[in-house]
Design a protein that fits this description.
By secondary structure, the chain is α/β, with parallel strands linked by helices. It is built from 13 helices and 12 strands.
Amino acid sequence: MLRPASHLRDTHPAAPHHLLLGPDTHGVTRYAGEVAGAARAPVVRDVAELVPGAAVHLHLTDRLLGREPRDAAAVVEQLARRVRLTVTLHDVPQPTDGPVFAARAEAYGRIVRASHAWATNSWHEHALVDRWSASGARGTVIPLPVPVPESLDTHPGRAAVGSVPTDPVVGVFGFVYPGKGHRQVVRAVAALRRAGTMASVRVLGDAAPGHADEVETLVRTSRARGVPVEVTGRVPEGDLVAALRDVAVGVTAHRNVSASGSLNSWIAAGRRPLVRDGSYAREMAALRPGTLTLFDDATLVPCLDAALRSPTSTWTSPAADLGPRLEDTAAAYRAWWASVG
């Protein structure tokens, strides 16, 4: 939950004001509020409330700040002229963005150059910034935390005992949009069904804005392949853990992953999902050993088959290190803010 107060008595001296833009339902805005709360940072919702010269932090994706990437860059440049601005870059541009890639890459370069200091959530994203947006620029990396239940009784590994789903349902969580991997998962499940495993697909999410046709196409092509597909629509936050625990296998298959909140949601629910191989996935596998299983285009079908045959392999061990926690992330941010002055 976001901390609503703009002026907190117990603020930490190393924590700059956090400027939260956009609706609380947006993942970046919600995460910004969580970091602000854990870091004991004062929250500001209106740029007009900022004192000139103050230290300000902004979590951003260009789509939160303007209709076009250049508009988002202009917003940040104007803000950076008024305050000492640090930023965390989300949804870092990469070539799989398609036609908008060049404009996004240029905009993020402008944002990096305008900011006092910048951060990403992974070294994978840092490398993307260096390669495509701001060659030679050096930021810091502060990984996304996993929101692990605090009570031992609700520890995901303990909850898995005796509650492993028996129906062969393959789950894909998050917005539906091109490149998210839903179609590949459907093709893989079709192959399993031809081999005698009557699996189905459950889409835990709704269409991304502007991509309603993608859901319609997914359902239509799935039926043509003989694969049952259920689209749940948006899963309420309070129901999310139960929904992620209620499928046999979770898959994170998007090709243009940078930092994945959906992957962390699987892990927070105690699941060990199948994750498309790539530099980000390998980075997360090294950060949290035993929390994901890598696959590539050639191995998704056998990996799904193996997971369905061994359900316990899709759950993390209670002993698995799921860090960093939110408090670790907040401490890393405070140390970084202190270091960049």
